[in-house]
Amino acid sequence: MGTKHLRRMDLIFTRDDDYKNLVKDILSRKNEDIINEMMESGLKGRGGAGFPTGLKWKLTSEKPEATKYIICNADEGEPGTFKDREILTQVPYKVLTGMAACAKVIGAKEGFIYLRGEYHFLVDLLSKAIDEFHQICKVNSFDFNVYIFLGSGAYICGEESALMESMEGKRGEPRNKPPFPTDLGYLNKPTVVNNVETLAHAFTILKLGAKDFHDLGVQDSHGSKLFSVSGDTPIPGIYELELGMSVQDFADDFGDGDCKAVQVGGASGFLVPRKRFKETSIGYQGKLKGISLPTGGSMMLFNSSRSMYNVLSNYLDFFQEESCGQCTPCRVGCQQLVKGIEQVKRGEKPAAYLDVLLKLTDTMKVTAKCGLGQSVANSFQSIVENFKEEMIY
Amino acid sequence: MKQINLKINGIAINVDEGMTVLEAAKKLNIRIPTLCYHKDLCTAGNCRVCVVEQVGRDRLVASCATPAQEGMEILTNSLQVRNSRKHIIELLLSEHNADCTKCYKNGNCELQNLASEYKITNPDFIDLVPYKNYAYDDLSPSIIKDDSKCIRCQRCVRTCAEIQHLSALCVAHKGHEMKISTFAEKPLQEVVCATCGQCVIHCPTGALTEKNYIEEVWDAIADKDKHVVVQTAPAVRVGLGEEFGIEKNDGRVTGQMVAALRRLGFDAVLDTDFTADLTIMEEGTELLTRLKKALVENDKDVQLPLFTSCSPGWIKFVEHTHPDRLKNLSTCKSPQQMFGALAKTYYAEKRKINPENIVSVSIMPCTAKKFEADRPEMRDSGYKDVDYVLTTRELAIMIKQAGIEFSRLDEEKYDRLMGESTGAAVIFGATGGVMEAALRTAYELVTGREIPFEHLDITPVRGFDGIKEASLTIEDALPDWDFLNGVTLNCAIAHGLDNAHHLLKRMDSGEASYHFVEFMACPGGCLGGGGQPIPTSPEIRKKRMKAIYAEDGDMPLRKSHENPEIIDVYREFLGEPLSEKSHHLLHTHYKARERY
User: What one-character-per-residue DSSP string does A48-86 give?
Assistant: First the structure.
């Protein structure tokens, strides 16, 4: 065990029976005050990409179009992530309040919760929360309606432009960017897409003020974050932690004493081997020393009983299945990686073939159309480079 | 328009705002390779072959989908770009049945060209084809779909949706199983496919090709007992030259084509244009008859507007998607089928040949004509009226196989008897042409005067606008037609089934009402048909259209009713338009087909 224990927070799941008054209060504030509060808080998108939330709202608020949308991305599909489900179960009103604040700022009359298909069991509960929330909006003469859109099970629909295609009744395929959703989003109208957790944090910020949130975490990575902890840990579950912690500290607190590696950010994230625990911290790229890894919150711990070949093979199977299939590097690249490591393992290809595959992932990283194909390289490179012998023997 | 300054490969350029990096590079004579990009279609940005480096960015950008931005610095041939592009071509090849020597598109394949350009001689990646269970669908009489050649660029999918409003082809499954398929993965034969072949001319590889009947035709020619007649559609003569790189004379090759067909060994080289003129006589009379019944006799059963029926892709589209409109369709067969019916009756009689021994071949800019010839309704001569339909491309293949130096051929003339035609017939090959030809004849028939347009060029119905409209008020009609005095005839023209769909919607809603409407399944009409040389683009179609009207302008006769062979066929065989014999041989009926 390390010396420093991580500070566990409890902002998101704290019940707030007084939220009706917060909604009323938010609706009475000036738009620019809300935007400033959000920008000063330093909140970045909690889905994993880390775009500054306040800036996203600001950009969309500046668009002249009469119709705009706010979409809550609840298509929580990253392997090892299960925090949004819990937020929607326990504190849906915080998410709805966040959506309403955004709607007010940007001038949206309609909002959508794009709910992962497998979360259909949440529909009843969520609908009740929405009905109650609509009443609050009505009382405050705020014209805003939220609808649930149930996804159909494709991982790619968590990518915001594929998500909007899916909502428009089309195949879930990512769009070309630019244009970005803030310019041409759902139904070609300016649209904000925020992760469930991001919107819940917006609630905290608008309640406590930007400073309290900003004071948490470290430079460039402010606030707290929910982590879905799974794998070889005695205490799996969801934890709210301050950003900026080192993987060493994390493994000390959550590992089983035999932690070999931690996968940060799910299948599309990075595998951190034990030798890099100390120099790696969890947060957005910035001025931190060493490596900092952004994440949607998935933390998978592996102990020495795990074969990293199996881990990688499992991720790649997932990607070759969940790629939308439209762009060449992702569709064919994933198949090549799956077949490639198989053939190396079986001795049908020389170990040097791994270098060919590493180069291929370099290409995928820079040429794939969306984040899915680009991020396959993350886990592939970090696993193959750190556990090469496990790939071969 | 706002100007954007950027640098490509170090060269400064100034372009209009909204232009893509790909287009900007083209202005500098820098070609960036593409596969999923096509000028006729919306941008997909999915093949990633056109990626370029934007200085200052970590990732490459797809030049087809990236707008030029102020201050941008682009590198189209950096080491990273070249390596990435090579990887992408290799990846495509690893999923592709690259047995090029056995491919119908060998020599005319965009993927093959790229592989050759990047010298992919020793690919790094694993051949994935053995792991795939690629489907091969050759049940359609028009189109063969070979999934093992498909690179998933979705050009066909976008074509079928955007140009043809059908979406017979669509994307199915995801990830490694993603493929181009049809509704419930049925064969093309069983879905809403119009058989137009637009997917074929937009496909960069051999995944979609016409079903070819070249060997069957060679066999017929070689058979001494058979008398093989060939007919050539109007648009073939303005497209065929492209297969031989002929640019002069606007690419018109009518005379050389006739000479080549003779050298191939056809026993008679005849012209679909003859039956195009005949179509005008029949369809024009049908229009005037329907007008009379509607305006004078107040017959409520008469359906107006009259829709043209020359385009079999359009016919199949109506049968599938607008069965309530079947009654609006002219009962006239298409010129190809009128020709086929006459070849085995009138022609056989005059030439004293047993129709059983006649093999009737047609050269068409069209793949739907293959389907049409196979329709069970098309056997009114007692035999299959048209035995084999070849596309412009298949004819070019035969000419090349025969070792004919096409560009050096002297011009020859069509054989007599169903070989004579007018300028009105050749313009059937362009959108608006049937309308123009019909108006030239119908107006004169009704008023006794030539239609009042300079040189008989009815310019309002010409050009590439998706939907064109024209009105003509009849005055001083001949006594037989005096009921038309003061009547303004409203006409409309649509080409491409998406435009057809929109025009039908306008008619259904009552927003527009017409007496006569020309529909063509393909963009630009037959000149842009699915059987024409590959590639196609707006510029190529424009060039072909110019050639069509030049052909028309050069013809000594410009009006269908003046064609002496047409006068003969009525005098000697058919009697008069819409006669019983005409009805039997030249007219047909349609049937509703299911949407799914």
Answer: TT--BHHHHHHHHHT---S--EEEEEE---STT--HHHH
